[in-house]
Amino acid sequence: MLSGPLAEGVVHGLAHVTGGGIPGNLPRVLPEGLGAVVDRSAWEVPAVFRTLQEAGGVDRAEMDRVFNMGIGMIVVVDASDAAAVADAAAAGGVDSWTIGTIESGRGVAWR
Description:
CATH topology: Phosphoribosyl-aminoimidazole Synthetase, Chain A, domain 2
Radius of gyration: 15 Å
Order of helices and strands: HEHEHHEHEE
Distance between the termini: 38 Å
């Protein structure tokens, strides 16, 4: 049985960030006419990705396209529910960050 934000219906979308990274996966859960603005400074990219980028001379856009950069799942909720969802994640032992906003448009823009 579901409990917390999922049971309460506050989750509008879940994007499992796999191959294709955030730009390849987040738009799939957004309705037509909506895009995302993602704030790169909202979380610390794990050292393994920084090392791969630096050692391989890989462009940041390619890193974003190929890897999840430390974000494995994105939960889309109303801004007014973000704190409650973060609290529920923390109660379950899961780190979370508010990484951006949903706006008119399409795809993912980086801030």
